[in-house]
Amino acid sequence: MSNLDRQASVNVCGGRGFVVAEPVRELLSPRRVQLGESTEVRRLLPNLGRRMVGAWAFVDHYGPDDIADEPGMQVPPHPHMGLQTVSWLHDGEVLHRDSLGSLQTVRPRELGLMTSGRAISHSEESPRSHARFLHGAQLWVALPDAHREVTPHFQHHADLPVVTAPGLIATVILGALDGAVSPGTTYSPLVGADLSLAHGAETRLPLDPDFEYAVLAMSGEAEIDGVPVLPGSMLYLGCGRTELPLRAESDAGLMLLGGEPFEEEIVMWWNFIGRSHEEIEEARRAWMEGSRFGEVHGYAGNRLTAPELPPTSLKPRGRVR
Asked: Any binding-site annotation on 80?
């Protein structure tokens, strides 16, 4: 998914200097962003107070939206570099096209994972004939420097491993959780999991104390380590945890995001993750000139135009503002 904000801000992230090395309960509120003609998203990362959770660098939550009489998601072709995109749905379908020729409909609880490497472009849209409701999350994972030039590729996994406990079904989206390992390719130690809690469930989820974590509330009413978290908000949890208490006041859907703190400082601007102003500038120039990022075929509309770069040089500075 693209960052469609025409006043794209510079986000400087990464480095261990601001990692919270102990358990905390830091509630992050979203910023509302219009995505195309009919979809509004709640942006949780980058956040005013926190930029990354492990290698997770971008989180949008959208819906549930009634799109029965609407076109639904319509994100024109746009470029990416230096990252992976993760498409995750609770309701609806998203049709993915990319410059490699991939054409795939992603459905609820299926993983759509695109690795940009040096350069890729793609579009995302609700199919012409689509379900009434659209509800999901779009996330980015920053690629470490050693893998930023990896060959671009797209993966779709309809069958993902699950971890169960009384009142809990945890689907492992990326990485590993309690011994279950996702087939999705990762380039740094991390985890992403979808948590379905039944009304009245009270359980504890095993965690890695070397990871930092956050939980995104997708639906329902739940308490995370005793903190009520409403849908569309996210609770940052810090590091040093071996387990996470969960309690559901109703049927609830959550996403667990975690990973080793990302050591490298990065620059994130529009749909690019780089390491310097010059890198971002070159990527923008290549997209506007129609080179490097390839072409998406089959989308009925024009590709996105990149916003103007800010007048000052982009510099990586750290994980929090």
From this structure: yes
User: How many alpha carbons fall within 13 Å on the CB side of residue 112?
Assistant: 25
Does the domain at 10-259 match CATH 3.40.50.980? Answer given as: no
| Stretch (H or E) spanning 286 | helix 277-289
| DSSP letters for 120-188 | EEEEEE--SS--SEEEEEEEEEEPPGGGTTPPPEEEEES---EEEETTEEEEEEEEEETTEE-SS--SS
Give 288: exposed, middle or buried? Use CB within 10 Å, 0-12, 13-18, 19+: exposed
Given this model, what pLDDT does residue 48 score?
A: 81
* The pLDDT value given to residue 137: 97
Tell me whether residue 61 is annotated as binding. Answer: no
Average pLDDT over residues 168-183: 98
Q: What are phi and psi of 59, to 5 degrees?
A: -140, 120
Averaged pLDDT of the chain: 92
Ligand-binding site membership of 249 (annotated): no
Work out the pLDDT band at 237, boundaries 50, 70, 90.
very high
CA distance 159 to 153: 19
223 annotated among ligand-binding-site residues: no
